[in-house]
Amino acid sequence: MTEQYEIFRDPYRMLILLATLVSEKKGEAELNFDNVPPFENDTFLIQHEKFIYKKEATEITWFQFLGRDIACNKDLTREEYNKMFVDCLASLYNIT
């Protein structure tokens, strides 16, 4: 079994922001926490109960709805989380 680490409140909020922007990009009025819309590009994958940052093989999981029993497969600092999510947001909008 892979070790799971609790994530900080700020990265959790950034994950919510990323999922919300994915929902908007897919034309959904708002984020459904029970059914996060699937999205994948070269940088990240997000889907129901899972987020993967491909560049670092970082995986964040949750149970049933986004925010419940949320955990990460790595013990990252806030700075590392911030860099990861900024990279994901940039990739969502093709910003280099």
UniProtKB/TrEMBL annotation:
State the superkingdom.
Bacteria
The protein's name: Uncharacterized protein
| Species this chain originates from | Paenibacillus sedimenti
